[in-house]
Amino acid sequence: MILTGNQNQSDMDNLNVKRLGKIAIYITLFICAAILIISIYPGALNSFFFPVILVSILCVPIFAVSVILFWILRTLGRRDLKSIRLPRQTFVPWREVTIIAGIVLVCYVLLKFYIPRRLAFMISRTAFEQVRVQHIISAKVKITLNRKLGLYEVDEYAMDSRGGAYFRVFSGGDGLSPDTISYGFVHQPNHEGSPFGAAEYQVFYLYGDWYWFRVSDDF
Questions:
Q1: What is the extent of the structural domain holding 204?
Q2: How do residues 8-24 score in pLDDT, each as one tens digit?
Q3: Are residues 108 and 121 in the same domain?
Q4: How far is CA 188 from CA 149, 150, 162, 163, 206, in A?
């Protein structure tokens, strides 16, 4: 009877672990989907993750300690401290672990090659091209646009004398300095700088003559 009771308890624990594994799969899917959607906007992930990292530095240890304390108190509520033993064979839900690892890997590959951003810009490219043609002569300096171009809200547009038509879709601080970091899309960019600054200037290829850029206003 004791063995049967222990076996039933073990089966129940394994079932709970599998349930937790399924919950973890859904949470992973939700987080990865949110990250992929946010990644459509250049710079949005950078702005989002900085405060998250700061909060995590404080919250993650507190959460971990809370979980451990909860487990200890829950265990002590059912049995004496001396009787606490780790099971010889711990059940691992390998199927759920494999699924979660696969989801994370796919998400990483999509982010690494900017797939969501490429697809979103392909949908929006026609609107960008129209503005670029309309302002090809007049935009010798930065102009305030504040227009919705496809999936993106463009606040400023400028042509650089060194080459490139720049559309800024996002700007903000890096959390460490007073400088403003600008992000956006650029047609046929130069490799020296942009109308929004020259420090830490980077361009990343999308397709055709289009790139996305990142730059600081610290000239």
A1: 117-216
A2: 555 555 666 677 778 88
A3: no
A4: 18, 20, 10, 7, 11
